[in-house]
Amino acid sequence: MTNAHLKLDGLAKSYGRFVAVEEFSLDISEGEFIAIMGPSGCGKTTTLRMLAGLETANRGQITLAGTRIDQLPVWERETPLVWQSLALFPFMTVRENVEFGLKMRGVSRAERRRRADDWLERLGISSYADRNVARLSGGQRQRVALARSLVLEPKVLLLDEPLSALDAHMAIKMQGELKKLQRELGITFVYVTHSHSEAFSLADRVVIMNAGRVEQIGSPQDIFLRPRSKFVAQFVGGISLLEGRVSDKEDGKRFLDTPDGKVRLAHGAGLAKGATADLAVRADRISVTVEPGWGENEIACTLISEEFAGAVVNLHLETASGHSLVAQLQQRDLEQLDASIGARVYASWHPDDGFLLESTRQSGSSPRVRAA
Ligand SMILES: Nc1ncnc2c1ncn2[C@@H]1O[C@H](COP(=O)(O)OP(=O)(O)OP(=O)(O)O)[C@@H](O)[C@H]1O
Predict the structure, then answer these.
(1) I need a surface site. Which of 85, 126, 241, 310 has the fewest CB within 10 A?
(2) 79: domain CATH number?
């Protein structure tokens, strides 16, 4: 038994021998905001289309509020999809677009109008009600697309990169509005996006996909602070990875032998001697100095480049073995560092700030084509 509102159980989709989605399982609670992320082609849209009923899964089940829906046609699913190209009817007015779904469901003219006008009002687009949608800005069209789905009072709203056509300013504004709306209505959102900031600021849980598989599901904090695999660490960014072999215990402490020297692992790092492991350290936990001797875990590096990112600056470093590390400094600390590009510097961190990745699967290493 499960009390999941929307349950995806082992969903899989192939096109010929190409595996678009290998196995997707997720229990979603009522009113939860789920974001699905991953590189282009990893299977995000295919997953959403299976939920919407626009694609038939080869395997697996979808259950909504205890009822199996994967056999139902699109119009009986109550899981409308709002997608990037919007697909509004260009020859209709804003109000006609919003009323369309209700008309298809046989709702009376007066009731259609009342409900459509209510949503136009809520989304701040009443003054455009009689305008042709072709004469709206991207942000206005986005609101019409939302109104058109929300007027049907869906249990789940599926959104495929809904803000990708908007400029950065409008996208941020709409992000806030979407989150507010989702909270107020208590509707479950499943939201596909390429934008890290959208996923991490909006979602209750983020799903990271890679080559048709789910790599990690967790709260934004979990994913950001505790990426499970090398792939997720690299995808999320801002994390330095060091490969090595776990060495003998010395004075009760465990070390990792890396090509750039020995580094101490956090207490409780439970790996057997000789095991290979990937150590991850967040960029904001790495200190950079021009003199050695400041930290317990210290690696000599060359300063390769500085990347300004507002109040902070990312320093890209290279170890003697050619490994890349990234350290995030405050502008003030950078001024104090006084090191130019090409200079020898020392990257250090506290052992407790390093964590071992659970899985060492490489990006793109999973076979995606089934044997004939
Ligand atoms: N109808 C189809 N026939 C064959 N292959 C398809 C079909 N639809 C999708 N694919 C392939 O399945 C894979 C997953 O596609 P999907 O659209 O789900 O990716 P995505 O993660 O949403 O990518 P993007 O971020 O670029 O939109 C891709 O390699 C795509 O080319």
Answers:
(1) 310
(2) 3.40.50.300
- CB of 44 closer than 6 angstroms to any ligand 1 atom: yes
pLDDT of 364: 45
Q: What is the ipTM of this complex?
A: 0.97
Q: Does 139 share its domain with 210?
A: yes
* DSSP-derived secondary structure for 76-135: GSS--EEETT----TTSBHHHHHHHHHHHTT--HHHHHHHHHHHHHHTT-GGGTTSBGGG
Judge if 43 and 116 occupy the same domain.
Answer: yes
Give the residue, by CA position, lying nearest to ligand 1 atom 8.
46
pLDDT digits (tens, 9 = 90+) for 161-172: 888 877 888 788
Residue 21 Cα to ligand 1 midpoint, Å, equals 9
Decide whether any atom of ligand 1 lies within 6 Å of the 45 Cβ.
yes
The tally of domains found in the chain comes to 2
Q: Please indicate, yes or no, whether residues 201 and 343 belong to a single structural domain of this protein.
A: no
Do 113 and 220 share a structural domain? Answer: yes
The domain in which residue 287 lies consists of 230-356
Residue 312 inside a domain? The answer is yes
> Ligand 1 centroid to 56 CA: how many Å?
14
Phi, psi (degrees; rounded to nearest 5) at 222 = -55, -50
Q: Are 164 and 197 in contact (CB under 8 A)?
A: no
pLDDT digit string, tens, across residues 12-63: 999 999 999 999 999 999 999 999 999 999 999 999 999 999 999 999 999 9
Q: What percent of the chain has pLDDT over 90?
A: 56
Collapsing DSSP to helix, strand or coil, 182 comes out as helix
**Tokens coding 98:** 């919003």
Q: What is the CATH number of the domain that holds 291?
A: 2.40.50.100
Say yes or no: CB of residue 46 within 6 Å of ligand 1. yes
